[in-house]
Write a structure and sequence with these properties.
It is a single chain. This protein is of the alpha+beta class. It folds into 2 domains: 100 residues, no CATH class; 146 residues, Gcn5-related N-acetyltransferase (GNAT) (Aminopeptidase, 3-Layer(aba) Sandwich), CATH 3.40.630.30. The protein contains 7 helices and 11 strands. An 11-stranded mixed β-sheet has the order 1-2-3-4-11-5-10-9-8-7-6, sandwiched between helices. It is globular and about 55 Å long. The two termini are 30 Å apart.
């Protein structure tokens, strides 16, 4: 949706109708002939689509540059996406990224690599330039969940103005905990509003006694439903909020007839990796990135 319209995703059920996704636990195996490399490619494509959804995408021989003039404080909206290193080296990517972002008043530099081998080759030079490395693990649900849901958590699809207000308040609280400034948090929420209709992203919230405890979102695509956002408010942690939400949206994606459900998680977040593994997710590859404040 255009920035500033204040609109939200339309309701998907009549008022008063149940909005909880059905609870089943399907087991999924790769289709015959499907390799982990193909599943990794599906997760990368979903990640690319989500990150670039409200940015101006400038194609380059080595990948693409994203620029989002409406959200200049959000790194994921303003960055280089590298699929292969140019013959002249990573310096060419940095030079082109500088040229594209400086005119928008963007002071940070953010680079993501679709090819981890290319990232490894460029890492030394980028660190010398002052970039900090980051690693993300791509995971796809291929097994049966061994996690127990919290039966006290109500999962609802967000569609009323009151629910959207709570959802955005949770996003803001999580951004503050992560260390984002108020400007970054505000632009992140505005950017999320804008990407909803572009991605047909479905948004869910977990509630304890009517109070919002956590969130999860799902981006449906032809071959893979992408779990784009997951977060639990600090005071509700260790109560099964994340595992219940991820389980619910994962089941929903497969009930929509989409063969696979995938996500990205921080390599260093061992608790999240353990959680996703217990929900039937398996690692299929990694994405590497670099950030310079």
């Amino acid at each position: 949706m255009p920035k500033g319209t204040g609109k939200r995703a339309p309701p998907r059920a009549p008022k008063g109708a149940p909005k909880e996704p059905p609870r089943t636990e399907p087991e999924v195996a790769p289709a015959p002939g499907t390799r982990f490399e193909e599943l990794f490619s599906e997760v990368l494509q979903a990640s690319f689509a989500t990150l670039s959804s409200v940015s101006r995408v400038q194609k380059r021989p080595w990948g693409a540059i994203f620029v989002a003039p409406d959200y200049p404080a959000v790194p994921e909206a303003n960055m280089a996406w590298v699929e292969r290193l140019p013959k002249s080296g990573i310096g060419q990517v940095v030079l082109e990224l500088d040229s594209a972002t400086r005119s928008q008043g963007i002071s940070f530099r953010h680079i993501e690599f679709a090819d981890p081998e290319a990232a490894h080759a460029a890492q030394g030079a980028l660190i010398e330039m002052g970039f900090e490395p980051r690693r993300f693990l791509a995971m796809v649900r291929l097994g049966v969940s061994t996690c127990i849901r919290n039966p006290d958590l109500q999962v609802r699809e967000v569609d009323t103005p009151e629910e959207w207000e709570v959802f955005e308040a949770i996003l803001s609280e999580l951004a503050a905990e992560f260390g984002d400034s108020e400007e970054v948090a505000r632009e992140t929420i505005e950017r999320h509003r804008a990407r909803l209709p572009k991605l047909k992203e479905r948004v869910y919230m977990g509630l304890f006694g009517g109070e919002g405890a956590g969130i999860a979102t799902l981006v449906p695509r032809a071959r893979l439903a992408y779990v784009a956002e997951v977060g639990t408010r600090p005071k509700f942690r260790r109560r099964g909020v994340a595992r219940t939400l991820v389980e619910e949206v994962s089941n929903l994606g497969q009930q929509m007839g989409i063969p696979y459900v995938g996500l990205m998680t921080s390599w260093d977040n061992e608790a999240a990796r353990t959680l996703y593994t217990s929900l039937g997710y398996q690692a299929v590859g990694e994405r590497r990135g670099f950030h310079k404040a």
